[in-house]
Amino acid sequence: MSTHQITLTVNGASHSVQTEARTLLVHLIREQLNLTGTHIGCDTSSCGACTVIVNGRAIKSCTMFAVQADGATIETIEGLAGAGLHPLQEGFWEKHGLQCGYCTPGMIMSAKALLAQNPNPSEEEIRYGISGNLCRCTGYVKIVEAIQYAAAKLREQQTQEVPA
Amino acid sequence: MIPSAFDFYAPRTLDEAIALLAEHGDEAKVLAGGQSLIPAMRFRLAAPAVLVDINGIGGLDGLRETNGHLAIGALTREAALEEYTFIRERYPLLADAAHVIADPLVRNRATVGGNLAHADPANDHPAVMLAYGAELAAHGPRGARTIPIDDFFTGMFSTSLEPDELLTEIRIPRPGPGSGGAYLKVERKVGDYAISAVAVQLTMDGPTIRTIRIALTNVSPTPIRAEEAERILTGQTLTDATLEAAGQAAAAACDPSADLRGSIEYKRDLTRVLVKRAVRRAAERATK
Q1: A87-161 has the same fold as A3-79
Q2: For residue B287, what pLDDT is reported?
Q3: Is the confidence metric ipTM above 0.90 for this complex?
Q4: What is the DSSP letter of A154?
Q5: Residue A53: closest CA among chain B residues belongs to which residue?
């Protein structure tokens, strides 16, 4: 059984931590870094509640060992809000994109990675993009609307920042 | 569950990785994308004493097209296959499969080589590579060798790779003029394994099928080709009668087990229908 000293950047802050090889990334995030916004749902790589962004890619943090994240840059739900809510958080609020809220952190992180790659997705592309995230409450209609809201708002912010 | 304890190594070179595999033998498992291995370890279906993580080895990922073939680095993420337009244009069978493997989050980690080396008959790339007639490159302490895909799968979860060999590259023969392919999968939901899936790669000579390879996913203990169906279609034009005969031959060739995805009869009949549809789609793409 090996233990490892690793360094990773989470939401802009660098952390140097000791981890057992078998520790899963989601456990390190929740239990050692105390960032409990990332949820554990199925524990079997199915539901996507544990989705975080590692080096720009949305992944299931229950299916990666923490030691593999040595040197990585990670974004979790806690990193989204700045002075106010992130447009995705605002979208889920305004469009009622959640009921129980359990899947929401993972859903938002998947959506964030999707919008970074494709700022103006069609409804079909949004549904495809979040197809690794399960929601058992909403039937997804409101989640799609929330992501569309966020996409429009992010595009608006972009054009304000860079005048044509 | 938490996996059993293990020793973790992250070699930076192929030689280091092979040395670790040679040293630890059967005790060691290669960790690539981990999207099958880590869940298996969490269920305690696998409890390797040593993991050799190959993610830090340079040069094992990426796609390279030469005159003769498309070379896919074993560590290439499934997501990468969806990001190249030339894959959609020239390798539609591969593009079809890339779209339906697990889900987008899993595809950001999962690798093409892992999907093959894991040798789960429910995985999608085995049938795809059988239909392409791919060659696999492996490296071990005795040097490099290539393995024809037809000799690769030796049983459920077992391959002709030695414990100290690493799969490094997959080579798909570059499809010539008149070629087409398709992968059709029926799954209960995104992320589930196939109830049945069919991979077809063919070459058309006008209306006639000149060559064809057909392979089946998750309807037998190992990934298999539907050779009788291939024989029935070779040299024929596409008629309802020849397609039906090929579909029935494929249904007879498979050996599915009844489970929560369906009965044996259902899986056989689904395979019959999927073979007919996949051959038609591949032929349509070829004549375009």
Answers
A1: no
A2: 72
A3: yes
A4: H
A5: B105
